[in-house]
Amino acid sequence: MARKKRRTKKSMKEHKTEEFGKEINQTSLIDTVSESLVANIIAGLPIASICAWRCVGKLFLKLISENWFTKLYAEISPYITVVIHNNFGVHLVEFAKGYCQLYKSVIQIKKAKIAGSCNGLLFILIPCESVEYQSPFTCFSRSHLYLCNPILGQFARLPEHNQKNYSWDGKRTEVYGLGFNTRTDNYMILRISTPVNPPHPIYKKRSEADVLIIGTNTWKRVGYLPYPSNQGSLGDTVKGAFHWLFYNEMKNFTSLYAFNIEDERNYQIPFPPNIGNGKVNMSVGILNNCLCLFDNSHPTHFDIWSMKEYGVGESWGIKCILTASIPAGICKSTLQPVAALKDDGIIIKSGSGNFYNYDQKNMKFTRFEIDNVELKAESNYLAVHWSNFCAVDLMSIGCVLVTEVSEC
């Protein structure tokens, strides 16, 4: 009996030595090879490989969780991660020149809706009542709100907005945006709510804007926006601000508006020259960290306007995609630029559910091959978001994690 006990103690000692040896090996690796060199190697890998690295040990997980690593990845990685939301769920797809890989399904609840994205984090809504889609608006009364880190597979439940704080308690259209305040190092959610068919015109002239600082439990009213957003999501931020288009039916005038996160003010952005003042067939986006307008108003070409110097109207530059260069079978009116590749290509989604790499130099479309039936049905696409790599632990920004995302 005593001999058996000694063997048990010996095995425990050997186990501890083995674990200690693993820890020493990890530490020695970081010490031997400089941290910056290791970071540069990891940042050049696909997301699936990076996620495998985080299983190696806490030191590597700590490395890829640093904010500076996220910035490094954005600078040197040849890969672009796109989050696709359709009726089958939410998916991560990774793109590069001549490369496309469906990485993982983030969430499989069909009612889930991506309402915003920032630095690789996703803001997700799950409506609790019947959802009425009035493109480009989404009308609903109450939803479960979640913040998600798709890389780490983390979810955090967020506090719902108090419906009693509205000046009008009828049906409303709601748009959201997820942003990051560089002044306070806080993530925040902007919510813009506009009445639908109110009894008095005064309610229609202004939208109520509220902000939730991630890590707190309180929504704060930040004012009344003079013009409501006319799109389903505020998208990503440029220069610390959300941007959207608004068409004023009374004045037959289209304007480009912005809301700055840090000082909580809204302002107007000058339009590119020679664009009509009436209703235009345009959308707002981001390419190469520049504010962009995608103009589909012309039958012979698709225009991409980029603001090279933020806020300066004279800095708008234009790139034209000729209709003749678009492959047969693709409807020009359904083209949606998603993100810019490092080789000067542009990832463009078509209405058929396919993704293309547009070579700006040779004016040529090349289709990415995605072997997944769920990503190919035109009617299933609800939103496509560009996303950065982010391994930030949601608990580190004040969130309480949940083990599952439940439907209402």
UniProtKB/TrEMBL annotation:
**Cited InterPro entries:** F-box-assoc_dom_typ3, F-box-assoc_interact_dom, SCF_F-box_component
| Superkingdom as given in the UniProt entry | Eukaryota
Where the record annotates domain F-box associated beta-propeller type, the positions are 129-376
Question: Which NCBIfam families does the UniProt entry name for this protein?
Answer: F_box_assoc_1 (TIGR01640)
Q: What is this protein called?
A: F-box associated beta-propeller type 3 domain-containing protein
Organism of origin is Daucus carota subsp. sativus
